[in-house]
Every structure is written in structure tokens, then in C-alpha cells.
Amino acid sequence: MPGQCAEFIPLEFPKRRLVPPGWSCLLAEVVVVENESVAGELVARSIRALIAGKPDAVLGLATGSTPLPIYRALARSLATDPLDVSRVRGFALDEYVGMPAGHPESYRAVITREVVEPLGLTAQNIHVPNGDPSAIQTAGREYEHAIVEAGGVDIQILGIGRTGHLGFNEPGSSFSSTTRVKTLTEETRADNARFFDSPDDVPMHCVTQGLGTVLRARHLVLLAFGAGKATAIAAAVEGPITASQPGSAIQFHPHVTVVIDEAAASKLANLAYYRHAWANKPTWQGI
Ligand code: F6R
């Protein structure tokens, strides 16, 4: 299972460049915010505007703790000022392999609990990779085709692991990789043990979108909070582009927004410039 090769699907970078011509996008836009709740409100506003203009928008959904403030802010916003979200589509980044159906920590269950229900999305429109071992040979290819058929992801929400992983693309993942089975590092299993009764219960394998899949989304929004993420964020935003730091794949993408708190920003060398650029951002330009 772990050695399985993904079918080769040629990389197709976003055709529609969202950054207006003439604007520099050599560096990711880095937005340093006071706290997670401000980050959640900022990204939720952007997602809301996307859906208002494109009612069948395709959302790329991360799990874990980091994106929760976005989902909660969006749920609050939709409760006070409703918007038709019945046609919104979504693709989760990853799923554990071999979790019993209905396990509360399967990412299918997490996405249902944290995203589909609070936002009132249509369950059939929300996809999660199939982590059933009996389907594993075709799960990656089918997921890739479903994303392509949906027209690609409009906005991809990302967290980052302490190992630098995006999705569950652990160090060494190819920048061209597509959805496939990966083996989690022990560091990631230890980090995710907080969601399980025992560290031994954390699955060893997952099905994750590849870095190539993630890079095809039209807008990447990477969030991180806390000092534990500072090294991974510095490597992703400013480090050399290397498969040893999967987060550095974002440097290939033309439209990336990195939303982080002060602690996660603490190892960035160009912090003063990011603050300056954000403080002087034209009001007409969203994230
Ligand atoms: C989740 C995912 C992972 C997490 C990362 C950070 O779908 O793919 O990359 O974003 O492990 O997890 P948290 O947010 O729990 O720190």
C-alpha cells in the first residue's frame, strides 16, 4: 500500500491569473493578524464574496484545528446574513486509511460536523477521498477526476504540519504528486494523537491530495497559529524550494495568501516588508 504509485496526471497550473497584470507576486502575501479569530473572519469574508459571485464555487477544505475559525466565522456570517450555499461544492484535502465507517475522527465525519452541517452545505456536493482499503487502488485517480470535472478548486484552505506537510504530503513528496496513499511521519501521528483515545489509534496511512493537486487550485490560503508552526512557515514562505519542505511548494503558485499570528510569523526574515505591504494594500484588492 505505501509504495503504491499514483497514476500520472499532467500538472495544469491555474489558467486564470487572479493577480492583476502589473502587480508583483514574487512573494506570497503574508498577513499577520492578532489572533485566530481575526484570521477566521478575514478568510470567511473572502469565501463569502467568492460564493456571492459564484454560487457553485469549489472550496478546498482542510481539517485539523487551524481552519476551524474560518468555518465558525462563515457559519456565523451565514446565520446573520443568509446566502444561497446549496450549490457550493467542496473537496477535502485528505482522509485516513482504514478508519471504521462513521468514526468521529475520520475526515469525512469531521468535514460533516465542522463544515457541511454548520454552513448548511449540500452533503452530496462535498467530497472526501475514499480511505476504504478495498477501494485504495482507484481512490486517488477517482478523486483527481472528480476535481477536474468540478472545474478545479477556487480557494484552497491549507494548514501546515510541523514537518512542513501540506495536506499529508510529508517531506519528500513530489511537487507533481496527485492524490495517493502516503505514510504519516511519527511526528504527525504524535501531533494528531490529541484527537484519538491513544496515540496507537492514529492511522499510519492516509489518502491525500498531492502537492501537484494543491497547486492547481486557483487561490491558496495557508494559515498557521502558534510558535510551533514558525519554522514550517519560514521554510514554506522564504526557504529554498525543496521537497524536504513540502510547504515550499507554495512558492510556485501565483496567488497565495498566508494568514498567520505573531508567533507563527516570528521566524520570517521579511516580516517588516509583509506588514508594510498589507498596511498599504489598496482597499479594492481582496486577499
Ligand atoms: C488537514 C491537513 C493537514 C493539517 C496540518 C495542521 O486536512 O491536511 O495538513 O492542516 O496537519 O494540522 P492542525 O491544523 O491541526 O495543526
Low-confidence stretches: 1-11, 13-25
Shape: globular
Helix content: 25-40%
How many helix segments? 9
Rg to the nearest angstrom? 18 Å
By secondary-structure content and strand pairing, the structural class works out as alpha/beta
Structure ligands: fructose -6-phosphate
β-strand percent reads 5-15%
One letter per element, helices H and strands E, the order comes to: EHEHEEHEHEEHEHEHEHH
Straight-line distance between termini: 39 Å
Instruction: Report the average pLDDT across residues.
Output: 92
Biggest sheet, strands in spatial order?
Answer: 1-10-9-6-2-3-5
Q: Main beta sheet: strand number and arrangement?
A: 7 strands, parallel
Q: Tally of extended strands?
A: 10
Note down, in words, how this protein is organized.
Residues about 1-10 and about 15-25 have low confidence and may be disordered. This protein has helices at about 35-55, 70-80, 105-120, 135-150, 185-190, 210-215, 230-240, 260-265, 270-280, and strands at about 30-35, 60, 90, 95, 125, 155-160, 180-185, 205-210, 220-225, 255-260. Helix content is about 30%, strand content about 15%. β9, α7 (about 230-240) and β10 (about 255-260) form a beta-alpha-beta unit. The strands form two sheets. A seven-stranded parallel sheet has the order 1-10-9-6-2-3-5, with helices on both faces. Strands 4-8-7 form a three-stranded antiparallel sheet. It has about 290 residues and is α/β, with parallel strands linked by helices.
